[in-house]
Amino acid sequence: MKVLLERVGFKVVGEASDGRQAIRLAQDLHPDVAVLDLAMPSVNGLEAAREILKVSPRTRTILLTMSTEDHHVLEALRAGVRGYIVKTQAVEELVEAIREVSRGLTHLSPDASKAVVQAYLAKTDLPHDPLTPRERQVLQLVAEGKRTKEIAELLGVSFKTAETYRTRLMEKLQIHQTAGLVRYAIRRGLIEP
User: 30, 52, 93, 151: most buried, per Cβ within 10 A?
Assistant: First the structure.
């Protein structure tokens, strides 16, 4: 992707392998646009976009995803994402999205636009999410197959604290098995199947 973007005249100032690194790079480099994959490990693209807006408010974010479900698109827009691109679209659409978003516009793939219009016409609202941002982060890590010890290390907290977060989110969701948590994380768009 870097080569393709540079070929059409964009300067790529950083690349991240996960959401945490994307947030750090945005904080250090303050790019005009950050292109994030929804399915990034550690911190998914949506959560990374929220954090990037905090640490680099002038950076506009574009989310790449396979999902066109209306609640995913609406949640991304409400989180401040300025571009929502379905991965099945051509590279030219991403280039156009970057150009539009860098000019202060919003760009949605046709499928995402259709989902927003349908949600508007149906007066759909986002389903309530009972989890805190930290609990969503723990849920994503659990859904990615991380053990409690790994979660504690990644989040920089004690094993007991990570265990408490995991227990609390299971109680809130009334889901007591990892497989159920994975299904919930997929439905909420925290990870892609």
Answer: 52
